[in-house]
Amino acid sequence: MSYLVAALYHFARFADYASFRAPLQAVADENGVKGTLLLAHEGINGTIAGSHEGIANVLAFIRARPELAGMEHKESHASKMPFNRMKVRLKKEIVTMGVDTIDPLKTVGTYVEPKDWNDLISDPDTIVIDTRNDYETAIGIFRGAVDPKTKTFREFPRWVAENQGLHNKPKIAMYCTGGIRCEKATAFMKEQGFDEVYHLKGGILKYLEDVPEEESLWDGACFVFDERVSVTHGLKEGEHELCHACRHPVTPEDKLSADYEEGVSCPHCADSYSETDRARFRERQHQITLAKARGERHLGA
């Protein structure tokens, strides 16, 4: 069975977002849909998975809210259910930058369609910036892009302040997984006085879906926030797994390392945890293995 995965977000004036939580959770549960959706005064963000009919019903329910009627989503597929449960959460921001003055509904960068992206980032007058975090950029990035190596999106404004060389070229092209971080990142850059700011419409996911691999300037895989861990060109499932100790994506090569122990450690975190931590991780992995043998899913996986 193939599960439909829908990545979605929409910035909106959503004052009554808290009251939408319970009915949205109920509709998702009724339709067997799982994943995570975030609600805030600025809109909705998240990824869900389920049957085609179930996803269609949940998306229709969301779009029935006048504030969210214009919401777009991107689709891909998973060979198994990529989420353990359905969570609808209330947040201060649907993507956390921590700068209260940023409002993508007031100002935002210029959208660039995937088919036009290669020309923009190949222009010598363009600086290309990846707005994702270091564990994401570690497995894939656009050729020639600047990697801020941030641990969280909250670090991005400080990184911009510390890198005045960004003013050396007239054009700034920014991208992220599905587009939402770029909405805020480009709005922030415009507020900082940058004039020609562009971002990839639909993010890396839309680029990998639309642009043929032989024409692509993307190297590697794209990290996704579900149990598939990564996708490649054509939105095919990648080869990465997730280290359940540090949550870092693990390659097949990483698994050959002496530092790799399933559910306990990987080359990225081998020196980061105590023996007490490792013992706890081993017990969790043991419970996951037992649940799998029973044909069940362990919620701690």
UniProtKB/TrEMBL annotation:
Specify the domain of life of the species encoding this protein: Bacteria
| Cited Pfam families | Rhodanese, UPF0176_N
Write out the GO biological process terms.
tRNA modification
Signal peptide coordinates: none
Gene3D superfamilies in the record, alphabetically? 3.30.70.100, Rhodanese-like domain
Q: Where is the Rhodanese domain?
A: 122-216
> Catalyzes what?
uridine(34) in tRNA + AH2 + O2 = 5-hydroxyuridine(34) in tRNA + A + H2O
Q: Please provide the record's keywords in A-Z order.
A: Oxidoreductase, Transferase, tRNA processing
Q: Which GO terms describe its molecular function?
A: oxidoreductase activity, acting on paired donors, with incorporation or reduction of molecular oxygen; transferase activity
CDD domains attached to this UniProt entry = RHOD_YceA
EC identifiers of the protein: 1.14.-.-
User: What's the family?
Assistant: Belongs to the TrhO family.
Q: Which PANTHER family match?
A: RHODANESE-LIKE DOMAIN-CONTAINING PROTEIN 7-RELATED, THIOSULFATE SULFURTRANSFERASE/RHODANESE-LIKE DOMAIN-CONTAINING PROTEIN 2
Q: What does this protein do?
A: Catalyzes oxygen-dependent 5-hydroxyuridine (ho5U) modification at position 34 in tRNAs.
Name of the molecule in the record: tRNA uridine(34) hydroxylase
Origin species:
Martelella mediterranea DSM 17316
